[in-house]
Amino acid sequence: MSHYPPHSPSSSVYPGYPPPPSPTRERVFGPLLVASVLCTGLMAGLFFAYDVSVMPGLAELDDRTYAVAMQRFNAVIDGSGLFGLVFIAALGLTVASAIVAFRRKRLAVAVPLVVAAVCYLAVLVITVAVNLPLNAELADLGNPATAEDLPAVIEDFKSVWVPANVVRTLLCVVSLGALCSAVLRYGRVSGSFPR
Fold first, then answer.
1. Mean of per-residue pLDDT scores for the chain
2. What digits encode the pLDDT tens for the residues 131-140?
3. H-state helical runs in 53-191
4. Digit-coded pLDDT (tens) for 93-143
5. Cβ contact 65:141 at 8 Å
6. What's the CA gap between 34 and 183, in Å, rounded?
7. In terms of Cα–Cα distance, which of 54, 62, 38, 60 is closest to 165?
8. Nearest CA-CA partner of 87 in 168, 170, 27
9. Is the dihedral of CA 174, 127, 56, 163 positive or negative?
10. What span, in angstroms and rounded, lies between the C-alpha atoms of 92 and 96?
11. pTM confidence score
């Protein structure tokens, strides 16, 4: 009978890394990471689409048509349960992933998750503090055809909402990049990806 401890292949293959946890413990963390990437990617894509197509296209229209179109866009997206779910889930899933990573002492994975969560939290703050109030101001116009202060409202909207959305896009892209980094680090630590 040998007095030496059994050989641990995970420790020898990845020196300096702790042995990976059991497959049962990993069943939650992997799907959390994937869901975080998907939700954040969807939000980055939505904001990017506004930056490169929706807003430049609307800018070529007259103020009344611009206002009517944005009012309708906002009404549809505000009433979309799917949008609301993805918008909030992107942060919730990322925070949950970071908590799990910290609890498992996977600091190499947890750090980019914290970066991703902070960036996406900034997206929520900008949305609530800037974009939503401007959307409400646009909705309060009522029928743009009879609104007396339409040009001023549209000018304010364009000069603030559009740059704010660019910032939201950039923050979402940084958040997505950090999440991808976390996925790669998780794969290396768990032995799923080659070092």
1. 88
2. 999 999 999 9
3. 55-59, 63-78, 81-103, 107-126, 132-139, 150-190
4. 999 999 999 999 999 999 999 999 999 999 999 999 999 999 999 999 999
5. no
6. 8
7. 54
8. 168
9. negative
10. 6
11. 0.82
Token digits of residue 180 = 């991808």
Q: Which two tokens stand for residue 51?
A: 């930056």
Among 71, 75, 72, which Cα is nearest to 138's?
71
Integer Cα distance of 19 and 189 in angstroms: 8
The two tokens of residue 82 are 């799917």
Task: Find the length of the chain.
Answer: 195
b or e along 57-83 (b: 16 or more beta carbons within 10 Å of the residue's beta carbon)?
Answer: ebeeeebbebbbebbeebeeeeeeeee
Residue with tokens 């944005």: 70
pLDDT value for 128? 97
Extract the tokens encoding 76: 């549809």
